[in-house]
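[job 0412] stage=complex_fold ligand=iron/sulfur cluster status=START
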Amino acid sequence: MILDIYSFSTLTTYIDKSLHAIMAPWLAVAAELVLIGLLFLAFYALLGLFLVYLERKVCAVMQNRIGPNRVGKWGIFQTVADFIKLVTKELIPIKNADNFLFNLAPFIVIIASFMAMAALPFAKGLQAIDFNIGIFYIIAVSSLGIVGVLIAGWSSNSKYSLIGAMRSGAQIVSYELSVGLSLLAVVVFSGSMQLSTIVESQANGWWIFKGHIPALIAFVIYLIASTAEINRGPFDLAEAESELTAGFHTEYSGIKFAFFFLAEYINMFIVAAIAATLFFGGWMPLHIGHWEAFNRVMDFIPSIIWFFGKTFFIIYLIMWFKWTFPRLRIDQLLKLEWKYLLPLSLLNIVLISFVVLMGWYF
Amino acid sequence: MNSPIDMSEEIIKNIIVKEDDDYIVNMGPQHPSTHGVLRLEVCLNGETVKYMVPHIGYIHRAIEKMSESDTYKQIIHLTDRMDYLSAHMNNEAICLAVENALEIEVPERVKYIRVALDELSRVASHHLWWSAFGMDLGALTTFFYGMRDREKILAIFEESFGSRLLHSFVTPGGLMHDVHPNFQKHIMEFVRYFRKKLPEYKQLLTDNVIFHNRTKGIGYMSRETAIAFGVTGPSGRGSGFSCDVRKTAPYGLYNEINFKEILHDEGDSFTRYLVRMEEMEESLNILEQVADNIPEGDFTAKMKPIVKLPEGEYYQRVETARGELGVYIVSDGKKFPYRVKFRSPNFSNLFVLNTLAMEHLIADLVTISGSLDLVIPDIDR
Amino acid sequence: MNSIIEYFTDIYKGVRSLWAGMRVTGKYFVSPGEIVTEQYPENRATLKMEERFKGEVIMPHDENNQHRCTGCGICEVNCPNGSIEIITKRTPNEEGKMVRVIDKHIYHLAMCTFCELCIKTCPSNALAWGQDFEHAVFDRSKLNKVLNKPGSSLKKKEVKS
Ligand code: SF4
Ligand code: SF4
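[job 0412] stage=complex_fold status=DONE, emitting structure tokens
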């Protein structure tokens, strides 16, 4: 099937061409790198602010509240105001803290999430870098952030932080497995690790529909495990505020705290974007088999809207969890992984291989 | 009757052996889950609580001492500030003590209204506990649902007494003034409203599998421990310790009302939770019985402007939302009491915490202290 | 075998109970419940406190700037925390006799615990609750109020017929 969805690659090639026309090749490449970097930086900041705002509004509605409503209409600039407040706040020096590591930690966390974002296909042809091992890269890079968390907990010389960091270490070590295995499900289905190929492979239906039961199981496991991986409720043990006040970032203030805060929300976005890409077709519009007319209509909706629509739907799911459930305890968290999720996802992999071998998917 | 209990065993279990290299974490005085200025010195072994020492006194206001220079009518506004969530019951304790000492019979209407207020305060207090308990466990939404429903009760209070939390509304001999004409109507409206909302509470927490895992089998308190430490109220009743003063030593109208004492004997945090949930329903039943039948009449008995108790000692117990509040008054016949002593429920309930939390995880410590429903100003007084 | 069945029923029951909880929050997400939050500064014009609301102690004055306080000092004695100070002065009345009248009825709002004893015990019903609750000020001394207005005088008791 040939798609006539607008591809951003026309735009990017045009920019590339015109840059090459006016500059030396190495300069053009450098300029492109800077351009992309700046774009991502801006996108990152805006997305972070928007997600914080969204989370507040969503939980407010669920809790019969109004939510932010002071700064701007519907409080839309509330997070901007908060950000300014955080930036201008004092950075409190911690006695006996390991200062170098203490200052380094927020950057590690934020860089990890930055790197993961580079491989996401935001729309047709809009992807910073299309690795042939895209999924593998994202899994590897996104778990780098935990190093930052561990360093933060260790270096801030606070018992709460240390406990929080240790918890988060235990958490990520176990949940990485399930995340990887459930992503493997889609890799088996599509036969590729390259994100663009995976998206293309869903042109006649998303994997969550085409792969029916095993894909659904994989999706649910992925959702649970990745929620745990990004330390969000009900798995927010690393910063369980009723036990550890704020967990690993107890001692951070001002902009350094803002980094952690931002990274947490961006990680949520990344996780949701991966889920959307792998299970819900990424930027691919909703296509059903051979209903050409229907597919045509769907194609009119720009691919970037499809991508963000799906991502925000999954973000909403993650928020819905968080604002409903009590927090798990650390031993229950590990039990959930090792006793339920891991065996189930292993079984699921076997099931999927079988289904794929027999060709029992659409 | 109950067999005599060997308390020594319970107390030996509680003896704390401190060592030099203990890993101490201070929870509080400012900590989100101590719900006030309580400091818990927690010794951890990994994440396991080795022992825990509560430090109190951060909000000591010498209420007992201040009472010695106040008249009996003036003491009432101080009792408000002990367990602020059961303000009405605290007021009533002093008033009943004075009334019994002077042998005053309060009008029927007063008795009915007092019971209605007791139960409304109890439900409001349990609302707050439910909200905060959910929040302790990380379910933040419960907080807002609980508060939303509590607001209805506070609106009733505000309408009748002009204040929402600390309403020194009871005086020796009766009430400050009559309740608002809409009082009964609004109570019935609340009962209907809350009955509709209760299933929500059940779906959100009571039935939740994560909640079960977090609370079942956590912080087991045997009946013996409860008695040895004097743990009363819903926490004690969760361990099968029948300690409802409304039943064991009825005051006011309670011997005429038809209600049952909620007793469970599993003794873990979940049971204490269940007791409170069922108590809310029971309170609604009592409210239904009372609110429709409030008789007409005076809102206060005839009292002398200056209350003087005859020489002697007086003791009165009431059931607050957290357990048994005892008021002990020694009078030397003057208009000020010679000595006032409050036996506050939270004080006893706090000190069982170490026994319950030992060998549990730090997350369970939060669960357990939440399930005991502590109000810190009542501990320090 | 039993344990396997148990394993899967555990999962099923768990998921069902979680779904029940999510239904509650989900329901409120699509059909927001009643919002009890007061939109305070915006609704200032329409905000009306209950008529019994204990905002502060006031001394009602009638249109002739007359109040009912005789300066007897009973409220001062009854206040448990010394929030009231009565200052009296002696002035001649119409018959030229020197009588004691109220000079200043000082009320320390910052110390008041709203116990209502002053209002209840005042023999001439001179005090009442005011509904004003916006008491935030920059200086504590601004909370010390003089309740009788300047130039006010004692209202004559109506002669009982
Ligand atoms: S307000 Fe009432 S009690 Fe106080 S001095 Fe005046 S008349 Fe006496
Ligand atoms: S309300 Fe109570 S505390 Fe306030 S001034 Fe009157 S008597 Fe004093």
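Residues C 69-75, 86, 122, 124, 126-127 surround iron/sulfur cluster (ligand 1) (CB under 6 Å).
[job 0412] exit 0
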